[in-house]
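Table S2 (continued). Query chain:
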Amino acid sequence: MNSKQKKTLELIHRNPIQADVLWDDIEKLLVALGAKLSEGSGSRLRVKLNGVRAVFHRPHPQKTTDKGAVISVRRFLENAGVSYDGI
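Corresponding output:
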C-alpha cells in the first residue's frame, strides 16, 4: 500500500466522517488491499475482500463520495478485517 492509499484509509476512518473522499481513490485502495472488483449494472460495483462481499454505487456525476457511502466502505473494511491503526 502506498502513501496515497494509506491517506485514503485514514480519511475513511476519520471522525467526523469525511464527505470529500474521491471514489477513484477508494477503488485503488480496495485493489491494493487485494479486493476483487467486478462491474454490476448501472453504477454498481461488486467487491469481495477476505470472503466478505459488498455492492457499492459509484457516485455520479460528482467524483466524491457522500458521508453515507464512506460509512458503508468503513463498515465493509472492518467486516473484512481491515482496520486503521494510524498506519
